[in-house]
Amino acid sequence: MAPVGAWPNEIHGRRAWLENDPGSFYVASAHELAWGESPLFLGHPGATLTPLLWGVQSAFYRVSGETEKSFTRFTAQNLPTVFFLSKLTMTFLHLLSFAALFALARRLLDDDAAATIATLAYATSLPVLYFVSRISVEPLLVTFFALSFVAVWRYQDAALSGRSGSAYALSALAGFAAVSGAVTKLNFLGLLPFFLGFYVIRGRASRIELRTRTIALLAFVSASGLALACYSQVIDWGVFASFWGGMAKKRLVFQWELADFVPGLEARRILLAAELPFFIVASVSWGLYLRTAEDPDRAMWFSAYIIYLLLLFAYRIVAEGNFLPFHYFLPAQAALSVFFGWGTLQIARKIGVPMAGTAATIGLIAWLGLHHAVGVWTAIESRLHDAAVYADHRPAFALLRRLGPRERVGVATPAGVPQGRGSLSQLSPGVVALHGIFYPLPWDPRLSILGREVSGLFAPVAYEEIASSPERTFVPLFKAEAAIVPAAKSAPP
After folding, report:
1. CA 170 – CA 200 distance, rounded (Å)
2. For every residue of 151-163, which 3-state class applies, written as one string?
3. What residues does 473 pair with on adjacent strands?
4. Where are the alpha helices (DSSP H) in 261-357?
5. Does residue 396 contact residue 477 with C-beta atoms inside 8 Å?
6. pLDDT by residue (tens digit) across 171-206?
7. Lesser CB count within 10 Å: N end or C end of the chain?
């Protein structure tokens, strides 16, 4: 209902982010992704997401059969569908993260019921519901975080049972997953390869032979190095360090307002209103679990990285001065959901609630609703706003889809506006808002090939040129009428 464009998202009537940030940047960068070349968009660095989005665009182009058009022209004319498919891919990646989180919770807690509750608690949280179809790296971040811990724990189990070959393979898998997470979002998982490498050699050190641990560490490091070498073919580390280093320094200016740290329905405070009950239950359960854990070694190592995630989230919130960047809570939310699941199960058992059947299902829905009803309401309310805004974009995209190879969308200009090479500037704000691809960016003087192609498909024309067109359409975004015209009759971009 609102796949592409640039407008301020709203949460209960108050501005949140921009719809195109960072989705349009990732889509545009993916369109011209090339092995061994610097990407158009750095991300954080997002090296696992961009190739997936390129695959979506490439597959769509090939399946369409419209080979008479170039890849870029086809993508530009079908931009809403490209974004829809990309967002559908994001939803699939979130489902994948749920499966990874379930595997993590089951491996740590050794209880399917607790793992199920943990996964459902995470899946119904505000950060997940708000980002469930937005183009960002968060689901990949959670997936690689969970899989890397699961791989290390399975390595330990294999090593202790004498299955050395499986142990080494699982250690290598842990290294690959950890590096994949690091190149997805460096500030969250950049420490994970080092942390897990140390865990491989030190975790349960007294029970696993030194020779096995040493070979496992070599497998971990080798897989990590190979993965990093491959991902570095789509990352410009020098530019990445220069830009994001500067951004980090800018965020050291703290500006606080006490009201922004009190639960409320405003965008800057909604996370507290939606997730504070969950956070309290998860935190208390976390503490109780550490006191009673059957495997304290795993519990403590896992908890150590959660503390880092929470500190990073706290830094971001304090630096921002409010809770608007709640996507920073997603990795910690996933990890804390594990303890929320365990704690919920303990409560249910203590009060004698059955763990199967209709009553158990109703009880679980009510329990999750108690914690996440505000988040569900907020996510729906915000998406309805986006859908209403996108109504102004639809007529322009409908014309784009019908363009022939030598046609453009002519947009009527006000009387007296000279026609010629410079007159396209009259349309630029509306056209850029339509596709949402803002380039050049501060760190890169290059123009987006895709953004330039979309903009080039629109041109200002005198009203007389489209007055007799049977498909003349009023485009609210441009505040003008538009129609398909031959390219020769429209001003060049």
Report:
1. 11
2. HHHHHHHHHHCCC
3. 482
4. 270-292, 296-320, 330-350
5. yes
6. 999 999 999 999 999 999 999 999 999 999 998 888
7. N
Tens digit of pLDDT for each residue in 266-296?
999 999 999 999 999 999 999 999 999 999 9
Structural domain boundaries enclosing 474: 394-493
> How far apart (Å, rounded) are the C-alpha atoms in residues 310 and 15?
25
For residue 383, pLDDT beyond 80: yes
CB 305: neighbour CB atoms within 10 A?
Answer: 22
Bridge-based pairing of strands 8-11 and 473-475 is unpaired
Q: Which of 387, 417, 437 is a domain's end point?
A: 387
CB 202 within 8 A of CB 304: no
Q: How far apart are CA 10 and CA 381, in angstroms?
A: 9
Listing DSSP states for 68-99 in one string gives TS-HHHHHHHTHHHHHHHHHHHHHHHHHHHHH
Domain assignment present for residue 79? The answer is no
Is the separation of the CB atoms in 54 and 89 below 8 Å?
no
91 CB contacts (<8 Å, ≥6 apart)?
132, 133
Residue 329 placed within a domain: yes
Ramachandran area for residue 484 (φ above 0: left; ψ -120 to 50: alpha; else beta): beta
| Cα 466 to Cα 314: distance, rounded to the nearest angstrom | 56
Residue 163 lies inside a defined structural domain of this protein: no
**Tokens at 360, concatenated:** 């158990």
Distance of CA 480 to the CA centre of its chain: 35
Q: Among 416, 418, 488, 491, which residue's Cα sits nearest to residue 458?
A: 491
- Average pLDDT of span 479-490: 83
